């Protein structure tokens, strides 16, 4: 083989821009999903990455052959490791669906349309000021692109991995996650247990932890559970000119206020303890001692985190966000039913059942019904040590040599949680350096990734692939 030549970051940016211009917006409302756009993006990948499609085997994954909301795409790159390499592959994940942009219709017809607050049209894929701007640049088409760019370069150079590699790209991570669930089921049927799974998640950040000046590469070794909980109560209704005391909306508002007034107690979970232990050697001043003794000072440290900002607070407690409210259908009509949706992110060590039980106690109102709309417990915790973890460290050294590798608990849910059923080493890391503003732009306004970060992301992924160890067990030769 020849030495792989990684693409110029500017060229990577152009290809990411092309994908952003295909508005693959997810929705739980079937009429809002433009299936043709999803098919268009899958076809565009074949144009942009011909070597990948020439050598890797592609499989379109969905629950049924006639689904109209796109397909998850899974590529298999056959390695040289025989049966053992087939059974224990490396899996690189991403998803190509994106969330809607407030102010734009769904589905999106005009990719040049502007949206309130955005510096550039969200689906125009503008490359300007050293960045690619648009919905999906960070969540998660950017990660998809750097994975494909690295594989394209390695395939073009004639390189073959020592164990199988899968590229698993979901089409509905932002909604149901059925694509990833089906992909995992198919691998399980084939007796495959991935050696390592890497999906979106943490990033290279600076200033995220007090007293730590060095850039830190935070890699999720677990993710919080997720629960959508409906709170509802009923009443007789009637005309708004003759309201009764303590009506449905009042009781619902009181329940919400009680939840807000009684947050879950802060606690240092295993991943956060590992985070602080890792950063102790890199902290300055008194924080070095605090981090080093976090186990002994756990209650104090956990309480301190709740006062450091929304991200540190979310690291140490189960959070509840009331995201939707519904009452009367008319301005002069008393509500017969009042509803709210509480989106809960569950800290490792707690479960859907324990969360519902606590909220029931906090609300303390038998007229309020709590219904689990959907819920999943926190993921298992993957080890922050061993050959898989060291492989991530090796790739980081080639792309962000000054960054400190550290574990943490991922706050948001990802498709990777589906893979915990078949792999003990599931990590969550997007190989980009991100500012606080960029992290806030995910699902928000002015989402963008820098061109330089795209280049470093390709370098990270290529280094990861090139350093993948061969299977240790004796592998049967291929026929």
Automatic annotation (TrEMBL):
Q: Does the keyword Hydrolase apply?
A: yes
Q: What biological-process terms (Gene Ontology) are attached?
A: proteolysis
**Membrane spanning segments where?**
none
Tell me which Pfam families the record gives: M20_dimer, Peptidase_M20
Where in the numbering of this chain does the Peptidase M20 dimerisation domain appear? 221-365
Question: What family is it from?
Answer: Belongs to the peptidase M20A family.
Question: What is this protein identified as?
Answer: Putative carboxypeptidase PM20D1
Q: Give the source species.
A: Luteimicrobium xylanilyticum
């Amino acid at each position: 083989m020849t030495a792989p030549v990684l693409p110029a970051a500017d060229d990577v940016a152009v290809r990411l821009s092309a994908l952003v211009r295909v508005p693959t917006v997810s929705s739980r409302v079937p009429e809002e999903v433009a299936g043709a756009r999803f098919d268009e993006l899958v076809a565009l990948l074949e144009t942009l990455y011909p070597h990948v499609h020439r050598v890797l085997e592609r499989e379109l994954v969905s629950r049924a052959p006639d689904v109209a909301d796109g397909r998850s795409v899974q590529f298999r790159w056959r390695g040289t490791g025989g049966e053992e390499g087939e059974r224990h592959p490396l899996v690189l994940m991403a998803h190509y669906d994106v969330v809607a942009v407030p102010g734009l219709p769904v589905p999106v017809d005009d990719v040049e349309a502007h949206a309130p607050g955005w510096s550039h049209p969200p689906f125009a894929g503008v490359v300007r000021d050293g960045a690619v701007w648009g919905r999906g640049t960070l969540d998660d088409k950017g990660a998809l692109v750097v994975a494909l760019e690295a594989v394209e370069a390695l395939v073009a150079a004639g390189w073959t991995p020592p164990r199988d590699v899968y590229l698993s790209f979901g089409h509905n991570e932002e909604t149901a996650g059925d694509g990833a669930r089906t992909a995992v089921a198919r691998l399980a049927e084939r007796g495959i247990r991935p050696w390592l799974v890497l999906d979106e998640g943490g990033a290279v950040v600076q200033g995220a932890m007090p007293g730590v000046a060095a850039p830190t590469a935070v890699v999720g070794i677990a993710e919080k559970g997720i629960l959508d909980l409906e709170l509802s109560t009923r009443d007789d209704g009637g005309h708004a000119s003759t309201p009764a005391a303590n009506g449905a909306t009042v009781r619902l508002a009181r329940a919400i206020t009680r939840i807000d007034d009684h947050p879950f107690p802060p606690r240092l979970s295993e991943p956060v303890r590992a985070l602080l232990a890792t950063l102790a050697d890199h902290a300055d001043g008194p924080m070095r001692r605090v981090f080093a003794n976090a186990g002994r000072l756990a209650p104090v440290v956990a309480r301190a985190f709740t006062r450091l900002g929304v991200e540190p607070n979310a690291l140490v407690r189960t959070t509840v966000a009331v995201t939707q409210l519904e009452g009367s259908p008319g301005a002069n009509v008393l509500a017969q039913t009042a509803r709210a949706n509480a989106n809960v992110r569950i800290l490792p060590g707690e479960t859907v059942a324990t969360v519902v039980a606590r909220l029931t106690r906090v609300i303390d109102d038998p007229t309020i019904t709590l219904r689990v709309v959907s819920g999943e417990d926190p993921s298992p915790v993957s080890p922050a040590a061993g050959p898989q973890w060291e492989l991530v460290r090796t790739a980081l050294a080639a792309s962000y040599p000054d960054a400190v590798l550290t574990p943490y608990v991922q706050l948001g849910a990802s498709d990777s949680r589906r893979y915990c059923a078949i792999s003990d080493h599931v990590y969550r890391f997007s190989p980009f350096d991100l500012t606080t503003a960029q992290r806030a732009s995910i699902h928000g306004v002015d989402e963008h990734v820098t061109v330089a970060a795209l280049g470093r992301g390709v370098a990270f992924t290529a280094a990861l692939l090139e350093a993948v160890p061969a299977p240790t067990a004796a592998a049967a030769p291929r026929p």
